[in-house]
Design brief:
- The chain has 6 helices and 12 strands.
- The protein is α/β, with parallel strands linked by helices.
- The protein has a single domain, classed as CNF1/YfiH-like putative cysteine hydrolases (4-Layer Sandwich).
- Strands 2-4-7-6-8-11 form a 6-stranded mixed sheet. A 4-stranded mixed sheet has the order 3-1-5-12, with no helix packed on it.
- The longest helix is centred in the N-terminal third of the chain and has 11 residues.
- It is globular, with a radius of gyration of 17 Å.
Length: 198
């Protein structure tokens, strides 16, 4: 039985008692700005940026990379980083919005995501990924087919956006058994990745 709206709100408050914001994720490059007067309850986008200490930002993932960004000026972001979004510039656009708000140095944390040994990557897109990110992002899966190293794709995009990687989860959503995975199990559920200021 799924919890109703009241139950979901209670769960959110148990995680962090702030104003929750989220987006309708479409694997694109639109960044939603959140502040004390502009909240997001499902606006279309794949990243949220805020400087509001009363807000938290969330994205849902089940194999894509959840990415948290922050700066010493208190500007922070949550990014849904699938390969389509990264190719279309979601990480660079998020960094640009943060810098427009006054962020200087930006640091990143990569959450749990599918790893290359479990991520078979279809041939129609292989040349595109190599052209944008280099041959090294293509590897072999554990069953010998072409795989994509999505965390490496994201780290490459972070470097190009002049964002420092501070920490990374090394859990694979597909094979760890601890996370929902669309590719491994066809799961409909998602992990919520939440970013806020302390």
């Amino acid at each position: 039985m799924q919890p109703g709206a009241d139950g979901i709100e209670k769960r959110r408050k148990n995680i962090v008692d702030k104003t929750w914001n989220w987006v309708n994720q479409v694997h694109g490059n639109h960044v939603v700005l959140v502040n004390s007067s502009a909240q997001s309850r499902g606006e279309t986008g794949d990243a949220l940026v805020s400087d509001d200490p009363g807000s938290c930002l969330s994205v849902l993932v089940a194999d894509c990379v959840p990415l948290g960004l922050g700066s010493k000026e208190g500007i922070f972001a949550a990014v849904h980083a699938g390969w389509r979004g990264v190719v279309s510039g979601i990480i660079q656009k998020t960094a640009d919005v943060m810098r427009q708000l006054g962020a200087s140095e930006i640091a990143a944390f990569l959450g749990p995501a599918i790893h290359s040994e479990c991520y078979e990557f279809g041939s129609p897109y292989i040349n595109r990924m190599v052209a944008v990110f280099g041959q090294e992002v293509l590897v072999s899966t554990r069953w010998g087919t072409v795989g994509l190293d999505l965390p490496l794709v994201v780290k490459t995009a972070l470097g190009r956006a002049d964002i420092e990687l501070l920490a990374q989860s090394f859990h694979c959503t597909a094979c760890s058994g601890e996370y929902f995975s669309h590719r491994a199990g066809g799961d409909k559920q998602r992990q919520a990745f939440v970013v806020w200021r302390t």
